[in-house]
Amino acid sequence: MIYTLTLNPSVDYIMELDQFTKGGLNRSAKENALPGGKGINVSRVLHVLDVKSTALGFAGGFTGEFIKQFLKDEQIEAEFVEVDEISRINVKVKAEDETEINGNGPSITKEQLNRLLSRISTLSKDDTLVLAGSIPASVAESFYQEAASLCGKREARIVIDAEKKLIAPVLSLKPFLIKPNHHELGEMFGVEINSVEDAVFYGKKLKEKGPENVIVSMAEKGALLLSGKDVYQASVPDGELKSSVGAGDSTVAGFLAGLSKGYSMEDSFRLGTAAGSATAFSIGLCDANKVNDLYKQIEISKR
Ligand SMILES: Nc1ncnc2c1ncn2[C@@H]1O[C@H](COP(=O)(O)OP(=O)(O)OP(=O)(O)O)[C@@H](O)[C@H]1O
Ligand SMILES: O=P(O)(O)OC[C@@]1(O)O[C@H](CO)[C@@H](O)[C@@H]1O
């Protein structure tokens, strides 16, 4: 079973407008409220691709209820530890460009954290835990390391997609997959990634630190997969960018979905890239038709 962990879920409030004026009154033309947070997005895209998962994390208040009900309606298994304050609302403004304001998130007590950790400690060999997204301010930065160590002891696979400081202590535990975008990869090494060659070079350096597989997503420039000694590059299909929110999560979900359907590494990567682009070409996450269409268009080359 694939488990996703979203410590800081959100209601993503997506506002579409033609023009955004900083410091002025803006009125949106269209709004959408969707459950968000990286792990939840991974679970939702896995569901789109017909792969079961269980979403773990914290949820609180009316926003927490919204998130839980939405997942229930989509028939996605979810086990959230109830917290006292409301789950955050992340505002996504889609105008000439994309502006995001992400909330800080609720306080989590020691007892609530322990409840989550004891659930994680029941995972076993055939399970995968996807650790994705930010950590609420009240949770120690070592939490991912703690969760990953528990998985390590039980031989469960770890997938991690988070910022540098949360990833760094998990690398030596040899996660199955890590997916930075090219900016995040650059930050890890204190450099700017300006070309695919740079991304290959630093992707390899990252892989040397422990992870079995590294996907470097590069937005409209596609993605790289480093697996074993192989480096694959995926092209991006043609399409209109609608909102890239959740594109990276969709890449992770597509890749894991491919593997759990028994696809080769290369085709799983193709499915990951197709899901990423299908989400970039949608408001909200991708749907299965779009993913299938794009899957046929993506070219994978070995470098
Ligand atoms: N403008 C785009 N056109 C086509 N495909 C895109 C575009 N932006 C993103 N994608 C697809 O989505 C994948 C992930 O995108 P990106 O590198 O932006 O991830 P990310 O920064 O983790 O995303 P996010 O944090 O917004 O979820 C890319 O590898 C690509 O397949
Ligand atoms: O604040 P974090 O946890 O880093 O990111 C949260 C978030 O921006 O990531 C998802 C897209 O990847 C959104 O659904 C959500 O709002």
From TrEMBL:
Native species of this protein? Rossellomorea oryzaecorticis
Q: Which family does it belong to?
A: Belongs to the carbohydrate kinase PfkB family. LacC subfamily. Belongs to the carbohydrate kinase pfkB family.
Q: Name one GO molecular function term.
A: 1-phosphofructokinase activity
Please state what the protein is called: Tagatose-6-phosphate kinase
Q: Which UniProt keywords are given for this protein, alphabetically ordered?
A: ATP-binding, Kinase, Lactose metabolism, Nucleotide-binding, Transferase
User: Reaction catalysed?
Assistant: D-tagatofuranose 6-phosphate + ATP = D-tagatofuranose 1,6-bisphosphate + ADP + H(+); beta-D-fructose 1-phosphate + ATP = beta-D-fructose 1,6-bisphosphate + ADP + H(+)
**Gene symbol?**
pfkB
Pathway(s) annotated for this protein in UniProt: Carbohydrate metabolism; D-tagatose 6-phosphate degradation; D-glyceraldehyde 3-phosphate and glycerone phosphate from D-tagatose 6-phosphate: step 1/2
The protein's role, per its UniProt record: Catalyzes the ATP-dependent phosphorylation of fructose-l-phosphate to fructose-l,6-bisphosphate.
- CDD domains, A to Z: FruK_PfkB_like (cd01164)
Ranges of residues in domain Carbohydrate kinase PfkB: 6-287
The organism that produces this protein has a lineage beginning with: Bacteria, Bacillati, Bacillota, Bacilli, Bacillales
List the EC numbers from the record.
2.7.1.144
